[in-house]
Structures are given as structure tokens and as C-alpha cells.
């Protein structure tokens, strides 16, 4: 399995590191527009190989897409991250052009590639990639829900006073401060609903902290997070590489599922060697459906800005 990572910044490098440590890919190529940056990150990571015990070959390239040829998976992290006080949606003006151009450069050299789109505003960037490339919908996956669900489990574990491995929880909807929908009704500790252990008030505090998880870290770090994003992407790449058929909430192009059409938004997907192998349609309550409709309206509003930001 050959993986391209576009963008050698915080998320791209973290993603490369986790993929290498998990040791399931033969080759990772990191590519960046900044002279020698990807080469430097790749060399630094390769110098951890004997320490961390992996055999994955990591190389870097400054904008030479021929080096990415015949990649099975490409992760797009290029673009700018937000600063404290900003929303992800405010990044569209710069990131849309970058995502569109790097995605077509990757595809030229890797006609069978599966894309994982990370750059923000992620749901809109995934939608743009669909519109720009016209690939089958299984081959373009937006990463947001895997990260948001990990943050939900972190917050649940904190409230329950237990390890995160004891907790199940999923976040669907748009990857935005207001659009995320932590499915509190389905959250559980070892299959026991969390409402058995936590008050309604505590559960809604957990949900609110989850939704602003990215903004909270951005405020603390001065830029957005990278460890959990990198880990989330690497798990999705691994599910494709190993044909795990694992369920992750992903931003998928919907064609009628959940009553939505022509939009990429977070819903549970089965991820395997073909990318999105199927979309799982949950029986949502009326209140959850209403939240998903509102979240989709906000994503559509951002999608509507694409015409004026990218040609
Ligand atoms: N979807 C998610 O869950 C999630 C999580 C974290 C970050 N993000 C997003 O990922 C993006 C990257 O975040 P980061 O913290 O790694 O930022 P960063 O600034 O550390 O890295 C971005 C890299 O992209 C490179 N780049 C810019 N234009 C390029 C181009 N045309 N071709 C190749 N490389 C180019 C830059 O040189 C830089 O090295 C941001 O948009 C951020 O909002 C999304
Ligand atoms: O918060 C951000 O802007 C980055 C990313 O989307 C995240 O959730 O960490």
C-alpha cells in the first residue's frame, strides 16, 4: 500500500508518523509546496524507524507529483489551519483553491486513488473534491467524525471516570462548532447506556464540550490540533489498507440517504478496501433528524460560497 500525504504540516506529519508506527503501509510520500519541508519531515520520521520498529519507507517531495504515482490512498491536509477565535468556515477562501488543485494533481498520477480529505472547512472541501474530480462516491472520504467521536469518548470517559476504551460514542453531522451531533442517546459504557451513570445535565455538558473540541484546542495551542487528527486519519487509512470493514462516521456524498442529496456530511460509513463500502442509515429520533437537517443547511450555506472562492 502506497499512501500520499499532501501537506507536511502538523496534521500531515502526525498522520505519517501514526501510519509508520502502525506499520501496515509499504510507502508514504509526503508532498508540500514549501521547499524542502516535506523532505525534512520525511527524513526526521525515517530516523525514528529503528527506534520505533517500523519498515514503512517515508519520502518527501517539494511539489513533484510524479513521486506520488500509483498511490492507493491520498490524504489531503494542505491549506491553512484556523487561529483562535476563527471558525473553520472562514478558511474556505484560501483552502478551496489549494484543495482543488492538489486533488487533481494527485489524480493525474494515481488514477485509482482513494482520497481522504482533511483540510477545512472539511465537509465543503470533500464536496468540492467530488465536484472537481467526478469520481465514484466511495473514493472520496471526508475525515471529521472519527476525530469528533474520539473527542466525544474522551469527554464521556472523563465524566464517567473510566478509560476511553470502556466507552462507545459517535458524532454525526457537519464537522463544525455548531453542526456536530454527538449521539448521546446511543452512547454507552460497555453497552450500558451512559444515562445509567450520568445526569441529563452532565450528558449535555459532555456534548457541548465535544462540539467545541477543536476550538478549545485551537485556543490553547494558538493553532488547531494535530495528534488526534493524525491518529484518526491513520485509522481510516489502515481500515482501507487492511480491508477492515470498520465503521467510522465520515463525510460522505449523500444521494438520498438520511433524506439528503448532493451534500457531503458526517454519517456512519463502512470503510474497507474500496473506501466507503456502504453508508449505515441509523433510525434517528425526530429531534436528531431535525439537528441533522439544521447541520446540513449550514454545510450547504458554506458550499454555496464555493462558486465565488474557486473557479
Ligand atoms: N478535518 C479535520 O478533522 C481536521 C483536523 C485538523 C486540522 N484540519 C485542517 O487541516 C489543515 C492542515 O492543518 P495543519 O495544522 O496541518 O496546518 P499546517 O499549516 O501545519 O500545514 C499545512 C501545510 O500545507 C502546506 N500547503 C499549503 N498549500 C499547499 C499546496 N498548494 N500544496 C502542498 N502543500 C501546501 C503548507 O506549506 C503547510 O506545510 C487545515 O485546514 C486544518 O484546519 C482538519
Ligand atoms: O478545529 C480545527 O479547526 C481543526 C480541526 O477541524 C479539529 O477539529 O481539530
From TrEMBL:
Short name of one Pfam family for this protein? Ldh_1_C
Q: Which GO terms describe its molecular function?
A: L-malate dehydrogenase (NAD+) activity
Note the Gene3D superfamilies from the entry.
Answer: Lactate dehydrogenase/glycoside hydrolase, family 4, C-terminal, NAD(P)-binding Rossmann-like Domain
Cited InterPro entries:
L-lactate/malate_DH (IPR001557), Lactate/malate_DH_C (IPR022383), Lactate/malate_DH_N (IPR001236), Lactate_DH/Glyco_Ohase_4_C (IPR015955), Malate_DH_type3 (IPR011275), NAD(P)-bd_dom_sf (IPR036291)
Keywords of this entry: NAD, Oxidoreductase, Tricarboxylic acid cycle
Annotated EC: 1.1.1.37
Which residues are in the Lactate/malate dehydrogenase C-terminal domain? 147-301
Query: Binding positions for NAD(+)?
Result: 7-12, 32, 95, 118-120
The entry's active site is 175
Q: Does the keyword NAD apply?
A: yes
Q: Which intervals of the chain form a coiled coil? A: none
The answer to whether keyword Oxidoreductase applies is: yes
Q: Which family does it belong to?
A: Belongs to the LDH/MDH superfamily. MDH type 3 family.
Q: What does this protein do?
A: Catalyzes the reversible oxidation of malate to oxaloacetate.
* NCBIfam families per record: MalateDH_bact, PRK06223.1
- Its protein name is Malate dehydrogenase
Organism per entry: Lutimonas vermicola
Amino acid at each position: 500500500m502506497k499512501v500520499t500525504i499532501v501537506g507536511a504540516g502538523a496534521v500531515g506529519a502526525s498522520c505519517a508518523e501514526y501510519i509508520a508506527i502502525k506499520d501496515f503501509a509499504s510507502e508514504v510520500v509526503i508532498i508540500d509546496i514549501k521547499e524542502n519541508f516535506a523532505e525534512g519531515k520525511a527524513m526526521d520520521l525515517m530516523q525514528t524507524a529503528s527506534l520505533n520498529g517500523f519498515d514503512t519507507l517515508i519520502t518527501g517531495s517539494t511539489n513533484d507529483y510524479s513521486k506520488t504515482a500509483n498511490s492507493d490512498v491520498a490524504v489531503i491536509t494542505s491549506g491553512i489551519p484556523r487561529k483562535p477565535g476563527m471558525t473553520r468556515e472562514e478558511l474556505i477562501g484560501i483552502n478551496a483553491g489549494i484543495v482543488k488543485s492538489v486533488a487533481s494533481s494527485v489524480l493525474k498520477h494515481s488514477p485509482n486513488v482513494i482520497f481522504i480529505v482533511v483540510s477545512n472547512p472539511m465537509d465543503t472541501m470533500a464536496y468540492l473534491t467530488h465536484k472537481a474530480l467526478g469520481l465514484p462516491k466511495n473514493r472520496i472520504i471526508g475525515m471529521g467524525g472519527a476525530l469528533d467521536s474520539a473527542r466525544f469518548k474522551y469527554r464521556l470517559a472523563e465524566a464517567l471516570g473510566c478509560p476511553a476504551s470502556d466507552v462507545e460514542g459517535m458524532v454525526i453531522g457537519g464537522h463544525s462548532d455548531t453542526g456536530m451531533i454527538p449521539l448521546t442517546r446511543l452512547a454507552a459504557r460497555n453497552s450500558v447506556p451512559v444515562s445509567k451513570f450520568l445526569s441529563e445535565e452532565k450528558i449535555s455538558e459532555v456534548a457541548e464540550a465535544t462540539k467545541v473540541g477543536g476550538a478549545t484546542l485551537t485556543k490553547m495551542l494558538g493553532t488547531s490540533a494535530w495528534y488526534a487528527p493524525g491518529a484518526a486519519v491513520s485509522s481510516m487509512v489502515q481500515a482501507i489498507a487492511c480491508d477492515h470493514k470498520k465503521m467510522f462516521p465520515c463525510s460522505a456524498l449523500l444521494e438520498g440517504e438520511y433524506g439528503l442529496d448532493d451534500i457531503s456530511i458526517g454519517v456512519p460509513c463502512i470503510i474497507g478496501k474500496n473506501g466507503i463500502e456502504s453508508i449505515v442509515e441509523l433510525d434517528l429520533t425526530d429531534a436528531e433528524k431535525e439537528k441533522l437537517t439544521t447541520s446540513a443547511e449550514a454545510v450547504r450555506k458554506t458550499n454555496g460560497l464555493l462558486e465565488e472562492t474557486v473557479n
